Amino acid sequence: MWNKYYAEGAAFYSSEHILDETMTLFARRTNASWATSWGKDVMGAGIEWLNTEPKDLIDAMDLLKKYADQAVSFTDCLSFALMRRDGIRECFAFDRHFQAAGFRPVI
User: Fold this and answer.
1) What is the DSSP letter of 92?
2) Residues 42 and 57 in one domain
3) Residue 71 region, left (φ>0) first, then alpha (ψ -120 to 50), else beta?
4) How far apart are CA 36 and CA 70, in angstroms?
5) Is position 59 within any domain?
6) Is 76 helix (H, G, I), strand (E, B) or coil?
7) Across the strands, what pairs with 48?
8) Residue 86's domain spans which residues?
9) 103 and 93 in contact (C-beta within 8 Å)?
10) Is 22:40 a contact under the CB 8 Å cutoff?
């Protein structure tokens, strides 16, 4: 699936917060060596890494409060803030929170 989007010239974005959560999950479910290898591969995969500014953290806090009834994570809210800031409307997401926040999941 990724190759299809690369071939179409799609841009890929993520943040260190997503990398953090994903590597922690992989290290717990496999081992630290595999998670580290995966992480280094991802760092060279043509992803643009979005930097978090203090305003983004404040915006994410406001979103956490706004979506409190949906049990959304702070990392998701930070992703929403970064995506809104940079005009990103589509995402690879596996939960309903991104759609509820107005983004279009592509998987």
Assistant:
1) -
2) no
3) left
4) 32
5) yes
6) helix
7) 13
8) 52-107
9) yes
10) no
